[in-house]
Amino acid sequence: MIAHEQVETAAYEIMKKAAIDIPEDYLGGVKGMIDLETGDLSSFVLKSMVDNWEAATEDRRPMCADTGLPRYYVKVGNEARVAGGFCGVEEALRSATARATQDVPLRPNRVHPLWRTEHNNNVGINAPEIEWSFEPDADWIDVTTVHKGGLFGTDYRMLFPGDGIDGIKRVFLDTLIAFGKRGLACQPAIVGVGVGGSKDICMTLGKQAACLRVVGDANPDPKIAALEQELKELGNRIGMGAMGFVGSSMVVDCHVEVGYTHTGGMPVSVHTFCLSSRRATARLHADGRTSYRTDPKWFTPYMRRETIGWPRSDTSSASAG
Amino acid sequence: MAEERHELRQRRLTLPASAEAIAELEPGNVVYLDGVVYTAREGVYQKVVVEREALPVADLASVSNANFHCSPAAAPDGKGGYNVGGVTATASFRFSKYLADWLDLTGTKIVIGKGGMGAGDYKEVLAPRGAIYLTTVGYGTGALLGRGVKAVESVHWLEELGIAQAMWLFRVKNFGPFLVDSDTAGNSLFQRQGELVNAGIEALYAGLKPPALRRYGETDDRRDELL
User: Fold this and answer.
1) Which residues form the domain of B91?
2) So what's the ipTM on this one?
3) Of A234, B27, B94, B178, which has the fewest CB atoms closer than 10 Å, so is most exposed?
């Protein structure tokens, strides 16, 4: 049985870790881009960012003062049991958000959309968002927090099957160019692309692809993996680097996720995570231990299952850790 | 290749900055600041520019002539002061309409923010008043900037406007890095760089057929069918 307090403590810790410590996969990806970057200004920006991440970790201060919209992704093992139940988990996540906002400190960004009123703690109606998924043959709960900037770098468009890969490339370029100018998208970033699903799930899949898959990860479908690589190269050929200056550093990595969609349509969404890509994951084990990591391991074979059942033999290895 | 890259010129500026020191800055220079900077964005502008309330700091320009478009991650430290963690700029283009009046009312000569402002704002508003624009770098160097904030000198309208919109006066040291976007002639680094990038954009779309259904924005005539 997982204790309610264990959830709150872990959520508080990952709020701090996400805000302060840049994930190593992302740091490695950006350092790799510095070596290839030929633009003076763009490369200066990237080096400053690396200095900034070192300062954040040394001083234990947030790497970016814009907290973005802090939120959670929770993956629950099918055998997991938690004291206080799952409403209790949601309460713990809201409590941890308020506590971390005060202690880190995080900027209280969340306001009512119409009245602009706030509680100064990043908690409110539908905030923080909590998305749930499940995992077979497991008794743990994974809690991931993502702090992603909330204003720029995302678009959605309903395409049609005849628009094909050309259409996806156009939406991809349109989004990166529109929000890359002056660097409003805070590039270079991990870019997530959602293809298919219903409209809302198209957005959700693209967002999760950007925020919950690490640099270097490839979609298990080799043709989608090839598309990811092609889009990454296309983005880095725009000629735009960090802050929209001349350069080649736009896409640290590109992740595509798909969902079965309407036979007449091909919805597409594009999402850029931040130059300060902030994510952290805690695994709450059934024996009371908590372990921390930066790879959310969100897209398991179970998540991507195609038929009524799921590939039972693969799930245990893919979800171990 | 890496060996072809050039180092950018670095400058250190004491605030309030003199007209001579400001005139020496060129687009693309890297700047670090010492002295006092203040934050002001739409909440403060609304009060002072629109509602004509008095500035809460007497003779602001003699204390600081640098306006930072920023909302700090700050929280009360329990001892009557504030704990400032990260410091990051917010996008400045939204404040364009207030700026001419604000510069006239305060004597501000340095505007600091995210992403610069329109080239017209530089030519028509900032440059004629001897003011320049500095942009934060990468928009995420919150920890480096937070490190440069040595003390909160004072905070005004905190109750009324909240942490994000209040007017904060920060004592800073080696505060940066920033990049000079516009100089006193109104030249803009973002504009120049944007033009260079734009030159290659058409070629990217060559051979990619347009989608079957267009969107408003691709045509601005709302009477058009989008097919």
Assistant:
1) 2-205
2) 0.88
3) B94
